## 1
Amino acid sequence: MKTNETLLSGIGNNIRSLRKARKFSQVEMAKKVGVSISQYRRLEGGEANVSVSILVNIASFLEVSLDLLVHGESISTENDTIELKEPELIEKMKELEALTGEDKKLAHKVLDLLIAKKQLNDIVAHIHK
C-alpha cells in the first residue's frame, strides 16, 4: 500500500504531466481549479493534501478521469491524454520514447498513416450507414 506522501507525489506528478501536455501554465490551472497559485504549486509538488472536490475540478478541466489523476498509466499527447489498458502498448510507447532522430520521425509517420487509415475507414463506414 502506498504511503500518503507517495500517493500525493504521484498525483502531483500526474497533474503536472497532464498540464504540460496541454500547455497550461500553473497560474491558468490554479485559476480554473479555484485555488491559489501557491496551493496549486504545492499540490503539483506533492506537498499538500488535496480534497476530492479539487481533484474533480482538475479532472474535469483536463478532461480526464479521477483514476488517471491518481494512478497515471497514461500516454500524454499534445491535445489529449489516453488511458492504455494493454500492457504491451504501454511498453511499446516507452520504447518509442527512447528512439532518436530518423527512427523517431519514421515511427511518427507510421503512426500517422495508421491513424489516417482508421479515420478514412470511419468516414467510409459513416457514409454507408
## 2
Amino acid sequence: MLYKTIKVRNGDMLVNYNIYKCDRCSNDIEEAWPMVINDINHYCYECGFLMDIIDSKEYLRHSGFGLMPNIKAAVHNGEVVLWTTKKPPWETPDSTYRKTKAYRLWRKEVFERDGYVCRHCGSDKDIQAHHIKPFAKYKKLRFKVSNGLTLCDRCHKEEHKRMKMGGRNERSVSNQ
C-alpha cells in the first residue's frame, strides 16, 4: 500500500517519490526498489518469494544475489534459505553433524563422565563415544550426554554387531 509520497531532487526538478508498505510484513519499499505488485497489494521481494508469487530465480536476481555463481534459494519452514552447496542445508548428511562443535563437545562430555575408559572392558586405549540410541534414527538425542557411552574400538565394533543382529546380551550398553 502507498505509505507516503515525498519530494526528491532529480536534476533541477523536484519530483514525487513514492514509499510503499509491504502488505505482509509492513517494511518500507521505496519505489526504486524491487517489489511485487499483486492486484492492489504491494509486497517486498522477500514476502513475494515467501508467498510463492515469484520464483527463486527472480528473487535472487532482484535481491542482489543473482550474480553469485551456484547460489540457490528456497522457502523452508516459513523462512527464505540461501545456500551454495549441492543439497539444501536441511538435507545435510548425518556425517556432517559429526564434524560440528556440538558433536565434539558431546563426545568430550561423554568421555569425562565415563572417566576416559571403556564402560565394557575398562580399557583406556582407542576410546570412542557410542550412541546408545542410533545417531541416524534418534536425531533429537544426538547430543544428549545420557545417550552416549565410552567404548574402546573393539567393544564398539562388538556392540554394533550385536545391534545389527537385533539383540542385546548381558553386556548390553547402558550409561548407568
## 3
Amino acid sequence: MTQQTWNQPINGLYMVYFDGALDRKVNKGGIGLIIRNSEGDIMGASVASMERVIGPFVLVEANAAVRALDFAFEMGFQLIIIEGDALGVLKKLKSWEPEHSPIRPIMEQART
C-alpha cells in the first residue's frame, strides 16, 4: 500500500480525491471521495457501494471519479483539482479524444 500525501491547492481551489475498490469474489465495489480546501480542511466526503460489478476494475475507478465530480458540483465547488490513483481514468477525463474503452459511457457522462 502506498501512502499519498496531501498537495495543497492554491487559495480558492478545492482538491477532490477519489478512490475505488473491488472485491471480485462477491462482485461488489466501493468508492470514496473527499474534498479539501486550500487549508486542508475537509469540506465534504462521501462513500458508496456498488453491487453486481461485472467488468474490469477500471469501471469502479471511473465511477468513483464521476461521483467525485458530481458531488463537488452538487456541493457548489466549481474550481476543483481532481486526484486519484487511477491515472488512466484521470487521463481520459482530461482528453477530448474519442473514447473506445469499456469506460466510454462513464467518461461521456463526466464530460456533460
## 4
Amino acid sequence: MFRTRNKAYPNRDWIKSVRKKFLSLLQRLMMPIAEQTMALSAYRTLLRSTRIAFQGDPRTLIASRQKARASFEEARSLSLGSPEAAEKIAEAQEVAKILRENVLQGMAVEGKENTYKLRIHEHTELGDNDSRFGSPPEKTKNQLSGVKTSRI
C-alpha cells in the first residue's frame, strides 16, 4: 500500500487495472456515438452532393433528397455497431462521391436540335479516357484508315 494525501490505496497495479477497465467501458459507450456521428456525416454529405449535382433542377433535387431520406429512415432500425450499418454508411458515402464527381446536368440548347450544354462544376472529375481505361490500341497496317468509301 502507498499513501497519497492521507488516502490509502492498494498497489499501483490495482489502480492501473481499474483505469484500464474504465477506459474500456468508456470506449464501448462512445463507439455507438462515433458511428452515429459517421452516419449523420454521411447523410449530410449525401445531401450536399445532391445539391451540387442537381443545382437548378428543383424537381430532381427534391426527388433525390426524398430518396436519401427514405434510405436513411429504412436503415434507422439497424443496430449501431453492426456490419449492416457500416455497409449502409459506406454505401451512402460512395453514392455521394459519384453524385458529386460523375453526374453532369445537360440542358437542351434552344434553336439547336440534339445539342446540350453541360454544367461542369469544380467537383466534376475531369480526365481523359487513357487514364481511366488504358491507352488506346496502336494502329496496325491492316486497319482501314484513310480509305474512301462511297454510298451505294
